[in-house]
């Protein structure tokens, strides 16, 4: 069986940036960029095409400066001779491609292993190519007697290596295919890892934005729903919380930081935790909101960032509440036997972060004996009414929608789920903004049933009661 003649690299033409390949008008299945400064006769595009069973286009460059100009998005693989001279400073070889930049900045090209110190100079040309082409598969050519250098090149980031003396069309075509598929697998794994990290980040942010309510001892019912908008992988700035203070007052709030992304979500978490801490410390109304504005002003990334907020503090008997609005939509109150209506919002103050010395008046609201109070972010009312329509649902549309569901006998979790689902359906698909909805309710009949079913106290004991543990006394933040 005849042994193929050794071929250093595929040939170059006299003109830089030359291309060889199939006839014009036929798209190449693979494009290979050969970087080698000492071309010799040997493998051509047609030879590789025949060996690979698919069309292969070859681009050639004598140095890294030419390679930088030829390194476009359609290049699938780079064939690099490690004997290529390293460019000197100021040659212009450091230009990165548009395809490579995002992957590099995302971590794919900035965290590769460094070459061993005694190999750094020999692999300088490879590290340069990996830096400017992080999305491309790279094959290196090296001398047959230097397996250690070849292995080190793969460790640093090349997909495979080839020896110059054992190169023919079949070996090269197979190596190119392997390198391309391996690079694709590496990128897919990198993206999968990033997706997993984003999911973990989302989970942490969600726990901070949407906590478990602290309502131990309260007779009020609680339900909540959150649906992220379709335009982001991360949560937005919607947040809510509910706590009961030792005097029996139930405090609830819902808010929205303008904008979307991790910074806004993190700020929402900070505001939510600050609200809970200040509420447990005894602040409410204007004092609480003024302090929250100070927190926002110190923590926000720019002066343009603001947050809307709605707070209510429900009296221990559950029949009345104090309401404060900071640029936020007014809650919806549904009393027994009456249609739901919006609470008064004329006396609301500005959003947090807009005016340095703003004030937020607290309005007293009569709730009655049996009621449901729905607090929400503007994502619920800004959805469209019909796919492609410019008309938004608005607060009036939301009130009508909730009333129709109340007439059907829905309440609690079922009411919120039906409302959020209907808003999405009216919009013709997922909403562009996040939606957070919180529902508090008081049902005297349920309270009476709970009282009848409560266990009767036994005979009085003269033994002193065991002290509560520190963990039981300290509410989680």
UniProtKB/TrEMBL annotation:
Residues 31-179 form the Response regulatory domain. GO terms for molecular function: phosphatase activity. The modification 4-aspartylphosphate is found at residue 81. Residues 14-23, 459-477 have a biased composition (Low complexity). Pfam families: SpoIIE. The keyword Phosphoprotein applies. SUPFAM superfamilies: CheY-like (SSF52172). Residues 1-23, 446-477 are annotated as: Disordered. Keywords: Hydrolase, Phosphoprotein. This is Phosphatase. It comes from Streptomyces cavourensis. The lineage of its organism: Bacteria, Bacillati, Actinomycetota, Actinomycetes, Kitasatosporales.
């Amino acid at each position: 069986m005849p042994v193929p003649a050794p071929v250093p690299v595929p040939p170059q033409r006299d003109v830089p940036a030359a291309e060889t390949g199939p006839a014009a008008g036929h798209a190449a299945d693979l494009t290979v960029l050969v970087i080698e400064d000492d071309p010799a006769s040997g493998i051509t595009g047609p030879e590789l095409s025949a060996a690979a069973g698919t069309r292969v286009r070859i681009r050639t460059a004598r140095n890294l400066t030419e390679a930088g100009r030829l390194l476009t998005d359609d290049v699938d693989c780079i064939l690099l001779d490690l004997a290529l001279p390293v460019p000197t400073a100021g040659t212009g070889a450091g230009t990165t491609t548009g395809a490579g930049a995002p992957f590099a900045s995302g971590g794919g090209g900035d965290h590769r292993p460094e070459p061993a110190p005694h190999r750094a100079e020999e692999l300088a040309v490879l590290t340069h190519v990996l830096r400017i082409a992080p999305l491309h598969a790279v094959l290196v050519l090296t001398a047959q007697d230097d397996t250690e250098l070849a292995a080190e090149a793969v460790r640093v980031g090349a997909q495979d290596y080839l020896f110059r003396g054992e190169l023919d069309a079949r070996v090269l075509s197979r190596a190119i295919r392997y390198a391309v598929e391996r690079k694709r697998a590496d990128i897919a794994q990198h993206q999968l890892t990033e997706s997993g990290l984003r999911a973990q980040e989302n989970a942490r942010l969600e726990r901070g934005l949407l906590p478990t309510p602290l309502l131990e001892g309260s007779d009020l019912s609680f339900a909540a729903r959150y649906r992220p908008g379709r335009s982001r992988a991360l949560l937005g700035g919607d947040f809510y919380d509910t706590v009961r203070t030792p005097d029996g007052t139930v405090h609830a709030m819902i808010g929205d930081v303008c904008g979307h992304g991790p910074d806004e979500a993190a700020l929402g978490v900070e505001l939510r935790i600050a609200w809970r801490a200040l509420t447990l410390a005894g602040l409410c109304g204007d004092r609480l909101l003024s302090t929250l504005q100070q927190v926002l002003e110190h923590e926000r990334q720019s002066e343009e960032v603001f947050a809307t907020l709605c707070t209510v503090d429900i009296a221990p008997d559950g029949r009345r509440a104090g309401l404060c609005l900071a640029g936020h939509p007014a809650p919806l109150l549904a009393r027994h036997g009456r249609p739901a209506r919006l609470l008064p919002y004329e006396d609301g103050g500005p959003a947090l972060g807009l005016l340095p010395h703003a004030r937020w008046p607290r309005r007293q609201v009569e709730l009655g004996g049996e009621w449901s109070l729905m607090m929400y972010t503007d994502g619920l009312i800004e959805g469209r009414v019909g796919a492609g329509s410019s008309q938004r649902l608005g607060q009036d549309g939301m009130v009508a929608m909730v009333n129709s569901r109340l007439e059907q006998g829905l309440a609690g979790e079922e009411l919120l789920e039906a409302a959020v689902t209907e808003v999405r359906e009216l919009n013709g698909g997922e909403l562009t903004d996040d939606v957070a909805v919180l529902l508090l309710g008081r049902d005297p009949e349920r309270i009476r049933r709970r009282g009848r079913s409560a266990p009767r106290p036994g005979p009085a004991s003269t033994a002193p009661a065991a002290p509560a543990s520190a963990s039981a006394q300290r509410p989680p933040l």
